[in-house]
Amino acid sequence: MIGVDGGKPARAPSLDALGSCLRKSARIGLIASVALLNLSATDAKGPAQVDQARMLAADSNPGEWMSGGRTFDEQRFSPLKQINDGNVGQLGLAWYADIDTERGMESSPIVVDGVLYNVQPWNIVTAFDAKTGRKLWTYDPQVPLKYGRMACCDIVSRGLAAWKGKIYVAALDGRLIALDAKTGKPVWSTLTVDDTDRSYTITGAPRVYEGKVIIGNGGAEQGVRGYVSAYNAESGKMLWRFFTVPGEPAKGFENKAMEMAAKTWSGQWWKPGGGGTVWDAVAYDPALHLLYVGVGNGSPWAQKFRSPDGGDNLFLASIVALDLDTGQYVWHYQTTPGEQWDYTATQQMILADLTIGGKPRKVLMQAPKNGFFYVLDRKTGELLSAQKFSPINWATGVDMKTGRPIENPAVRYGEVPVLVSPGAGGAHNWNPMAYSPVTRLVYIPVSETYMAYAAATSYDLDKHQGLGTSFSGYDAERKKIAEYADAHTKGWLSAWNPVTQKEVWRVAYPLNGSGGTLATAGNLVFQGTISASMAAYRADNGKKLWEMPAQNVPVAAPITYMVDGEQYVAVNAGWGGGLAHVERSKYTSLFLGKPRLLVYKIGGKAKLPPMPAASRIVPELQAPPKVTGTPEQIAKGEKLYGANCVLCHGVAARGGVKDLRHMSSATHGEFLDIVLGGKRAVNGMASFADTISKDDAEAIHQYVIARANADWEDSGK
Ligand code: CA
Predict the structure, then answer these.
(1) Are 579 and 697 in the same domain?
(2) Distance 484 CA to ligand 1 centre (A)
(3) Which of 14, 34, 261, 277 could form a disulfide with 220 if both were Cys (CB 3.0 to 4.6 A apart)?
(4) Torsion (CA) 450, 454, 342, 145 in degrees, nearest 10
């Protein structure tokens, strides 16, 4: 049992010399009948016998969920219909597993041959009997706890991959690890990060195509150069790497694509790295032999520091198509030229065949953070259509002649804060969407968000710390923007017709932050809700057919599978991630129990234990300690807080993964032990002793105390 007991982690024993134990696994002979392989795979070759032929035939084997989005096209649609719009009301809990973490669960499990593989924070992998929930094995890669502070948006992991008897996990510290699917023992481990002094972290799920493991990384909030790489699934040997932004021109370019991209940059962007991380979505078309890569935001955010003369800054916020064999550039489409609002195009890409204007088209669809739903021809990259799926103010539309957004000039911020929509959380973030080829609708978890953006007065290219933006000063402007944002922020489930580019139905939620979606041939859409429940809707009209309390918010996307002729729906319920970090204080209505893996079936009779009494995630504000710091010390603390703490603990210390305004007197007493001594590193709060001094930490402490007092006074208590 992997657990956190009284703050002490009970982690699996450390594993050594992973890189050296390369194993040549026996070649699997070609089996003509895929159905035959399904029946015999587990017995003959051991579990998780996934290969190209089996993935291509996934629709004739719909009881499995063998890859992140089930199939290569990432539709997150299941042909299973034993659970359907007629009987979903009888859905009950089949089994559940507690997950020992205080952090977010963003992963969808995979299921192969009756075994469910799941991953949780710190990249701990567990295999379960998919029918009974019995634990088969657990593997802990022992990620060094210092990585807890390098990930911008929680120490999450979004999933696993399976190929020829191995399970692949990408660890937060940059390792790609292949596990023996039968035992959970590592077969090989490769460090995918080329500069360990930078804040590279991996939260995305690996994918395997034609025996190549594809993996990117994150870190663009703290100065990195983005890339995606391919590894041999058998040996762990790197096959190719594609950088998403150019390096320093004086050192020469890796390829023609980098030479082309460099013409769209100015200044010394290579010092902070430029960003453009491939931190989540990839997709693959086996017929076209193309790999599609979603590219993230600029680093730093403020363009004036990273590329002072402006420019498009390729390939930030772009969808890039690469040759799977070589990693060579084929085409790109940039959603947000000169990106500076954290408008990543890393969100899920769905491949489908649609009839548009009477013509059959092979398309790629994406609903990235910037609020436009894009339909591209996936062979050529031609933009077929783009429409807003949420109210936004950064652009009024997309010019179909040039493919470029018609930008609102007011959003290119200076030092005075401006209201921009969507905010950095996006109109749609990593939470997966699903496409049903039956209803021909895309089911998107949508948010309407707003944020105050302002440039910092300076940014040190060599230190590359912070975002080049400011979260303090101009209090009156910020207050006005915050009030507008509070009044207008919303969340809903949208059923989107990608051909007409119109919403067909929606389910409104009381707050934004509901989970990813799953569509099935049973005319159902499943989604975890911000009301801490699981729900099922009719896929054609959105009518709610079933809802059950989950004691937590399943932000991840559900999956479905079949074992011994019975269909199951599984979801990880564990609130966390970027939204929970930044806007926690807004969710006063949330009462959450333990994070769990929840598995449902028709007539399921399992029951969750009662919720603990102290389950409110935003505690009542208590009287804080008296302010003892000087105004100078508090002002210094505010600056340091903005540079070091804001990503995890929220703007103005409101909210965050832990709301510092609510620290207990015991925590106040341990403040330096936590910030400098790493006392809570296992919870993700790593030591900052290498970047800030004791004086700095005390100044931050005084600033937080001052903030708590200000809000305590405002509360009128
Ligand atoms: Ca980002």
Answers:
(1) no
(2) 23
(3) 277
(4) -110
Are 654 and 593 within one domain? no
| 1: pLDDT strictly greater than 90 | no
Is 0.70 surpassed by the pTM of this model? yes
Specify if 659 maps to a domain: yes
Q: What is the CATH number of the domain that holds 549?
A: 2.140.10.10
Residues 652 and 546 in one domain: no
| pLDDT tens digits for range 240-297 | 999 999 999 999 999 999 999 999 999 999 999 999 999 999 999 999 999 999 999 9
Same domain as 165, residue 221: yes
What pLDDT score does 18 carry? 30
Residue 649 has pLDDT above 90, yes or no: no
Cα 546 to averaged position of ligand 1 atoms, centre (Å): 35
Do 150 and 266 lie in one domain? The reply is yes
CA dist list (Å): 51 to 54, 231, 249, 456: 5, 15, 41, 50
Query: What does the block give as tokens for 159?
Result: 């999933």
Q: How far is CA 487 from CA 239, 623, 654, in A?
A: 50, 28, 17
531, 640: one domain: no
CA 717–ligand 1 middle distance (angstroms)? 38
Neighbours of 83 (CB within 10 A): 26
Q: Tell me what pLDDT residue 45 has.
A: 77
pLDDT confidence band for 46 (50 / 70 / 90): confident
Which residues are known catalytic residues? 342
Whether the per-residue pLDDT at 19 is higher than 80: the answer is no
What does the alpha-carbon distance between residue 153 and residue 198 come to, in Å, rounded to a whole number? 16
Task: Please check whether residue 145 is in contact with residue 158, taking contact to mean a CB–CB distance below 8 angstroms.
Answer: no
Question: Both tokens of residue 506?
Answer: 């929606």
Taking the chain, what is the end-to-end CA distance rounded to the nearest angstrom?
44
Same domain for 567 and 638, yes or no, is no
Interval between CA 171 and ligand 1 midpoint (Å): 18
Give the environment of ion ligand 1: residues with CB less than 5 A. Answer: 297, 342
Average pLDDT of the residues in 312-332: 98
Q: Is the pLDDT of residue 595 over 60?
A: yes
Contact 207, 68 (CB under 8 A): yes
* Beta carbons of 459 and 300 less than 8 angstroms apart: yes
**Cα–Cα distance measured from residue 102 to residue 107, given in angstroms and rounded to the nearest whole number:** 15
Among the listed ranges 56-70, 358-372, 616-630, which one has the minimum average pLDDT value? Answer: 616-630
What is the tally of structural domains in the chain?
2
Ligand 1 centroid to Cα of residue 301, in Å, is 8
What distance in angstroms lies between residue 422's CA and the mean position of ligand 1's atoms? Answer: 13
Q: 3-state class of 248 per DSSP? A: coil
What pLDDT, in 10s, does the model give residues 213-229?
A: 999 999 999 999 999 99
Residue-range definition of the domain harbouring residue 591: 19-389+417-602
Show Cβ contacts of residue 389 under 8 Å, excluding neighbours closer than 6 positions.
Answer: 367, 371, 372, 373, 427, 428, 444, 446, 494, 496, 503
